[in-house]
Amino acid sequence: MHYVQINYPSRFKYSPKTKYMKRIYHVVFIFLAFLSSGGLLSGQELTILHTNDMHSKLTGFGPESEYSPLVTGNDSTSGGFARLSALFKQVREESPDRTLILDAGDFLMGSLFHVAEEETGFQLNLMKQIGYDYITLGNHEFEFGPGNLAKVLKSAGEKGGYPQVVASNMIFSKESGEDDELEQLFQNKSIQPYSIIQKNGIKIGIFGLVGIDAARVAPASQPVSFSDPEKVAAKMAAFLKTEKKVNLVILLSHGGIYPHLQNNGYAGEDIDLAERVPLVDIIISGHTHVKTPRFIKAGNTYIVQAGSNASHVGEIKLRYRDGKIAEFKFNLLAIDDKIQGDSAVFNKIEKCIDYIDKEYLASAGLTYRQTVGKLNFDIKCDYTDLKSSNLGPFVADASKYYLESTGNHADFSLVASGTIREDMLKGIKGLISVADVFRVMSLGKGYDVVPGYPLAKIHLTAHEVKKLMEILIISRGKGGDGFIYFSGIKIYIDSGKGFLRKVQKVEINGKEIDYSKKKTTLYSVTANTYLLSFIGEIKKMSHGLVKVVPKDKYGRPVTDMKNQLIDVNQQKEGIQEAKEWIALIEYMKSFERNGENIPVVPDYYNAGDRTVVDMAK
Asked: Could you tell me if residue 450 is inside a domain?
């Protein structure tokens, strides 16, 4: 204990009374000194900074050409690792012994930086350099499979390491060897099921989970699977509290929350988990890209989430006293133009951009910062109003145009809102770069060095087209990632009709089709390989009521989508894959140019979807 020497005022003369008073003063001063040094009244303080769903947004959020982190007051962009680093440094300097920096998953996948991560480990290593202590895995870390994730981690380890990864509900396959490299990292504790750290006298247990929905939308994670997050959380929290005697249990959960309009609050996996697993003290939530302006209290548990793209950092300031959280304050810190970025981090990122230009974009005749178009309005995919969003129709039109321009006809194209990863924002100047366009359709990879899901083409009968539209209309009604946009096809529906009877008329390229069963004419459909892979699953999704068989141009059932890839340059050896993000660039090249010879997106796209007409309204 720290003692303070007390000098009593000279007017106190010795007497039995003054001796008694001196003892009282002595006790009071020692007690106050104890309190001021972190005793019972003040408790032990802890600061937690956290992010989620950053999606490799190392250079800010929209538009890329205006991001200037070393200068303040001159742009409207948000996020960026140079700014993050500056904020983290400031907080660490203010409270070095009581600060934790955490991330709740999906830190990868979403920009051209993730393309090079397997070879360079650049982002993960940079996350360690700027101060992250613990991170967990989301569904997008598995985008290219467990073997690729293992290579990313190993590359980062060779370059100087990465933040400690905590992942508690991964199940490795006993039969397949495809996840052996990742399992080895788990066995050698490069990935841990939990970790314990002391901060300012507080013993903290940290673990991480992939949620139910996140696991569902991570098909590439196979053969890795994920056990029930609530059961794992209950066991882990009890273990940490009872056996490891931690004071606080923090869960990094890629499960998610979302606004619940009916009760003016929140719902979701992390709310349910908190109510059923009371030993978890704090959930740092991810996956659903939600910003919580205030903390959520569910049962005994505090829940927070910081949005996405590193546009905000969550800041928790808490006091721990008498065996519990006595005070919990939460704030969202904007990562914007008011923060002057870290120049050393900025320069490292610039060198990585040079590497991306050379190794990945040169083969497509592109550069990272190349201007490819101009906007006079934002082009967005708004999940609160998907039908009125203009980005989905723009991407669908671009895909169909790109194929036609390369001699590959498709009757109509499909785009799922869930594969649209970022808006194209006008910003101040309206200039759109290659980097901006890639972020729109940044997921996946094909079989060449150019990143992104490739476009493929299948064929369906008119009757199958009608059945497919019935299913997609249902999917659109549910909203979310399964909202499908079209180009080249127009569907007339009666929303008052029953299940599988809503579609009344289908037009392809302006002509009504006869979708009676006797018609054998085949219609070509293009979409990325990820979306097309689900068409063959419609029978299962509809519980056997609807069967749609993807076919090649000769009417034979498709057994391998790789055989349906579109070749945009048949003069070259091999298949030159068609990528959706390159389709966007090629489509913009077709627009009328301004005085600076830059293509301008036409006003036609300053409106939403026009491909579905409800005849009942």
From this structure: yes
